[in-house]
Amino acid sequence: MAKVLVTGGAGFIGSALVHRFVERGDQVRVLDNFSTGFRQNLADVQDRVEILEGDVAEMATAEAAVRDVEWVVHEAAIPSVQRSVEDPVGSNHANITGTLNMLVAARATGKVRRFVYASSSSAYGDSEALPKVETMRENPISPYALTKFASEKYCVVFHKIYGLPTVSLRYFNIFGPRQNPNSPYSAVISRFINYALDGKPLPINGDGEQSRDFTFVENVVSANVLACTAEGVAGQVFNIGTGGRHTLNDMVRLLATLVGHELNPVYGPARTGDVRHSLADIGHARRLLGYEPKVKFEEGLRQTFEWYRKNR
Predict the structure, then answer these.
(1) For this structure, is 144 an active site residue?
(2) Model confidence, pTM
């Protein structure tokens, strides 16, 4: 049993992590300012976790949150390319200042045995080379991508200079239950499921042939647990995806089979800051973390659709 802090623990990925740690029997503390997370995401475990309401970008809050914990799983961020384009200062404050505060606070305790950072595949930018390998040169093309990459580099530096055992996980297009479909910045699968259930047209930015390594959230949860416990990985960066990709048009066709009727995609201009294709090479995570994406895209999409259908 470990003492775990999950920042952003009321959010989509954060709450999935909280549930897994609770199931493991770990002692869990959640830090969230509830700007994008929801208390209802923790409703069924709220009596088994400690919840702190506060902002990682405030040092006093970060210091209180890390007190006596062994693992820090840092998910808190403003997770939107488009929002970062509209408000780069806000994204910088939440994502870079927040991460730096958490690293400083974690180092100061002297008790944190692993600091796992939620990075992003957006760090690779618009490179046409596929699959994306951790040894590739990064080229972030949005403020969001830059904040994630900069924070990732802070993690590496804090390990090299201060000996803080950090691990950064570059997420590839995570989807699953509890993802908010109602925000204009929401990820595409949650929004499309919501539109499909409402019988609304599905707005696609571009021609729909852009492809993503869509990764079911439970695969990411498993990767985080492995990152907390694996030996010899401090200071390293790992891709977390499936090693496969689907176009948005593919996803719409699969979703139509779940809904039971044809859907109506409506195509518009491509979105500023988006990359055309994304695909993870997960060999590094397989070798050193023992990571294996057990839930494939089709099954993850089915589980996600059923969750939204029952919990609308």
Answers:
(1) yes
(2) 0.94
